[in-house]
Amino acid sequence: MANISASLVKELRDKTGAGMMDCKAALADTSGDVEAAVDWLRKKGLAKAAKKAGRIAAEGLIGLALAPKKGAVVEVNSETDFVARNDLFQGLVRMIAQVALDVGADVERIKAAKVGDATVADALSSAIATIGENMTLRRAAELSVAQGVVASYVHNSVTEGLGKIGVLVALKSTGKDDELMALGRLVAMQVAASNPQAIDASGLDPAVIARERVVIADKARAQGKAEKVIDKIVESGLKTYYKEVCLLDQPYIHDPSKSVSQALKEAEKKLGAAVEVTGFKRYALGEGIDRKDSDFAADVAAAAGQG
Hints:
Elements: H1 6-16, H2 20-29, H3 34-52, E1 59-67, E2 70-78, H4 87-103, H5 107-112, E3 114-115, E4 118-119, H6 120-131, E5 136-144, E6 148-155, E7 162-163, E8 165-173, H7 177-194, H8 206-222, H9 227-245, E9 251-252, E10 255-259, H10 260-271, E11 275-284, H11 296-303
Helix pairs in contact: 1-2, 1-3, 2-3, 3-6, 4-6, 8-9
């Protein structure tokens, strides 16, 4: 067995970010060959990543990337909120968002994309091995406009373009880009706060509207309303419903005395050009993930080898 010096272990650790004992084992197994030890650790790192893949990753970060007339948003999950404050993880999410901006929103295509000599999937596996938590690229989305801007807003931001809620808003307009970006940010803040389901009623699932009609009508009948007024009650109820779920009908959070649609009309006068919201994307970290209940005492005992 080769004599493994402390300096050699440190060199390998600096190269790979792996633990000291892992580095020592890798060097011992490769007779002190650092490059061979790097490969040895990469293989072991991938094996470790596979073992961690079954653990729920519901924390992490939402990442945004913008370019002229387009934007991308991604969700990259980790197991703990602590990792979201890790510089390596933040850099990984920022890189993935940029790749999504370049190659599109298909998750498998993003994972297969090359960054330097490695793929995004390789970078994820390497980060899992280094940080020691399961991580997943859960989803991605993109928006673009032929004329206008794609603006963004990040809520609970930990650093530029990274946070807990990320929003993209596409504005079609011939107005000045800087003024449109400022307006788009305000609309994106609206989306972050109010979580609309569609731009307007035409974007809602017809089945959802039909179900809402039934609910409003049945409620009116239960209150003893006459059949001849049910239709009017339903139409009035739908208008109230649209104010809750349709972006343009919602009260404008920056001035609740007007709707978002009215606010945009006022903005058009200042811009000297028509403005149309053509799309939005809103990602909230961990939404829809089924988080398992955890027995903290059992987890601690298991970690200590007592479970």
